[in-house]
């Protein structure tokens, strides 16, 4: 088997959205992302810390779905490695030469990975102006950068092994007596580039966008409330057990879930050890034991194949939301 591509980080997501103007209001006016390019077909957005062309592409389409996730790889040769790695595993693979794929991105390869998720691997990408200290342009949620993806898949152990084969570390897990319910996997030295959530899939559960400060997470909730748009707030604000991050979950106009997320921790030492949570610990999902709204477990975005067709869904065999533990808030009996 060929060597895995050297993945640097989760780099951008392309979402199909049904109303570009409504999406622009949510992602630009409310989240404060910067427009690198826009036309009648798509918006190319980035956070204030991001020096590459975009981290979110919103493509006008009749049906809302995930077009693809994208990982940046360390060198151009890693695009070739990715093509070989996935072809050898029998995955659908399509080379996307520079100028034929997503605006701003160079030579790339797109695959449907073993979990059924459409993923692009690229190295070359156009640069954007340095906005890190353009505080005059920071607004709304003041999103700094894309931090992670969260995907729903019915076989977490298999998904864990797949991402380990790509060289990802595992920062934290949620485990039952015999079951693995969730895992957080990283290449960049933070808690995750991708989280694996048990459930029917493949689905995109959410995109995690990082801010620098917890007050920006609180401000995000306040501005949605101030505008009478509180229905876009789904869960939180709160403090995660897993990752220790401060968070609020939003739903965009198409229902795509976005987490505004800050203050997780460093995972870059070679001997980092996975932190394991028991599924019966009601601090795992919310460190203060707050309930997790059922929609957070039950709703997610469908994903496309390489031709833009919706992928079939496989059912899962575990249901964490059925665990009668404080943090899930579903008919919960608090421990005495
Ligand atoms: O709810 S969890 O504490 O499991 C959690 C941790 C980190 C995340 O990014 C997340 O979306 C959810
Ligand atoms: Fe997240």
What features would you describe in this structure?
This protein has 336 residues and is of the alpha+beta class. It has helices at residues 20-30, 77-88, 156-165, 214-226, 294-298, and strands at residues 7-17, 34-38, 42-46, 56-60, 65-73, 93-96, 108-112, 118-122, 145-153, 169-175, 180-186, 194-198, 203-210, 233-239, 246-251, 257-262, 275-278, 301-302. The chain folds into two domains: 7-122, 2,3-Dihydroxybiphenyl 1,2-Dioxygenase, domain 1 (Roll), CATH 3.10.180; 140-322, 2,3-Dihydroxybiphenyl 1,2-Dioxygenase, domain 1 (Roll), CATH 3.10.180. Helices cover 15% and strands 33% of the residues. A hairpin with a 5-residue loop joins β7 (108-112) and β8 (118-122). The model is unreliable at 324-336 (pLDDT under 50). 3,4-dihydroxybenzenesulfonic acid is lined by residues 148, 150, 195, 208, 240-243, 245, 259, 261, 284-285. Belongs to the extradiol ring-cleavage dioxygenase family. InterPro entries: DHPA_dOase_Mn/Fe, Glyas_Bleomycin-R_OHBP_Dase, Glyas_Fos-R_dOase_dom, GlyoxalaseI/FosfomycinResist, HPCD_C_sf, VOC_core, Xdiol_ring_cleave_dOase_1/2.
What's the β-strand tally? Answer: 18
Give the bound compounds: 3,4-dihydroxybenzenesulfonic acid, fe (ii) ion
Radius of gyration: 19 Å
Task: Label the CATH architecture of the largest domain.
Answer: Roll
Specify the overall morphology: globular
Strand coverage percent: 25-35%
CATH topology of the largest domain: the name is 2,3-Dihydroxybiphenyl 1,2-Dioxygenase, domain 1
How helical, in percent, are the residues? 10-25%
End-to-end C-alpha gap? 53 Å
What is the highest CATH level, the class of the largest domain? Alpha Beta
Q: Which secondary-structure class do the elements indicate?
A: alpha+beta
Uncertain spans: 324-336
Largest sheet: 10 strands, mixed
Average pLDDT level: 94
| Count of runs of 4 or more consecutive helical residues | 5
- The number of distinct structural domains comes to 2
Helix-strand string: EHEEEEHEEEEHEEEEHEEEEHE
């Amino acid at each position: 088997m060929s060597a895995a591509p050297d993945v640097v980080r989760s780099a951008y997501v392309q979402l199909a959205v049904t109303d570009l103007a409504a999406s622009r209001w949510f992602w630009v006016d409310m989240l404060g992302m910067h427009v690198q390019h826009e036309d009648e077909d798509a918006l190319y957005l980035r956070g204030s810390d991001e020096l590459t062309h975009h981290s979110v592409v919103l493509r006008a389409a009749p049906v809302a779905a995930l077009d693809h996730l994208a990982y940046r790889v360390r060198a151009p040769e890693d695009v070739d490695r990715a093509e070989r790695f996935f072809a050898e595993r029998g995955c659908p693979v399509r080379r996307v030469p520079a100028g034929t794929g997503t605006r701003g991105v160079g030579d790339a390869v797109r695959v449907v990975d073993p979990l059924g998720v459409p993923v692009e691997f690229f190295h070359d990408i156009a640069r954007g102006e340095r906005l890190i200290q353009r505080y005059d342009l920071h607004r709304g949620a003041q999103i700094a950068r894309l931090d992670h993806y969260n995907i729903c898949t019915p076989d977490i152990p298999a998904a864990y092994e797949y991402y380990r084969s790509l060289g990802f570390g595992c920062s934290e897990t949620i485990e039952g007596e015999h079951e693995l319910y969730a895992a957080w996997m990283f290449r960049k030295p933070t808690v995750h580039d991708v989280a694996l959530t048990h459930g029917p899939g493949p689905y995109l559960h959410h995109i995690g966008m990082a801010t620098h400060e917890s007050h920006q997470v609180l401000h995000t909730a306040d501005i949605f409330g101030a505008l009478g748009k509180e229905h876009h707030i789904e869960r939180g604000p709160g403090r995660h057990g897993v990752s220790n991050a401060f968070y609020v979950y939003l739903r965009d106009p198409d229902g795509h879930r976005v987490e505004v997320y800050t203050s997780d921790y460093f995972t870059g030492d070679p001997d980092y050890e996975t932190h394991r949570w028991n599924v019966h610990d009601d601090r795992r999902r919310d460190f203060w034991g707050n309930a997790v709204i059922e929609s957070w477990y039950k709703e997610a975005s469908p994903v496309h194949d390489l031709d833009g067709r919706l992928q079939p869904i496989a059912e899962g065999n575990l249901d964490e939301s059925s665990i009668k533990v404080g943090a899930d808030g579903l008919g919960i009996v608090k421990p005495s």
